[in-house]
Amino acid sequence: MSNNYEDVGHFNISFSTNFTKKILLVEDNPGDVILFKDLVSQIKNYDILVTHAETMYCAYNCIKEEDFDIIFLDLNLPDDYGVSSVRTMKKKCGATKLVVLTGLAGNITFEEVKKAGANYAFVKSQLNSQIIENII
Questions:
Q1: CATH number at residue 100
Q2: Any bridge partners for residue 102, and if so which?
Q3: How many whole angstroms separate alpha carbon 109 and alpha carbon 84?
Q4: Which residues in the chain belong to E strands, given as ranges?
Q5: How far apart are CA 51 and CA 65, in angstroms?
Q6: Residue at 109 is within a domain
């Protein structure tokens, strides 16, 4: 029996005790993207892969090509906004957890976005690494 691992081809084995979670961040503000990635980097109980889409159109393309565990959706994008964007995203993502983020607390009610299909809704300034980890 050979111990030459090259014979099995492209096969990766991970002995990590962490669970990998795939997140799609739909956000058009570069500062908010940097802040989100910083918050995610503080989470140690999971290996997290973040894919970033600046528009709803780009997000739809990402969803077509890849399955995500969680989608974080900004409510104010260049090509879609408000409750209608939540409804549309929920139709595209199915059972995937959908977390809505907004910059303004008075912009829309959390009841509205939850009724539209979001699992969670947060004002961006209140989001922290512990909240993200709890959602995961």
A1: 3.40.50.2300
A2: 123
A3: 13
A4: 19-26, 46-53, 70-74, 76-77, 80-81, 97-102, 120-123
A5: 12
A6: yes
Q: How far apart are CA 48 and CA 132, in angstroms?
A: 11
- Tokens describing residue 52: 């970033």
**9-64 pLDDT, tens per residue?**
323 333 345 678 999 999 999 999 999 999 999 988 888 999 999 999 999 999 99
CA dist 69 and 76 (Å) reads 22
pLDDT grade, residue 110 (50/70/90)? confident
Q: Residue count of the chain, please give it.
A: 136
In which domain, by residue range, is 58 found?
Answer: 17-135
- Residue 12: inside a domain, yes or no? no
Count structural domains, the chain: 1
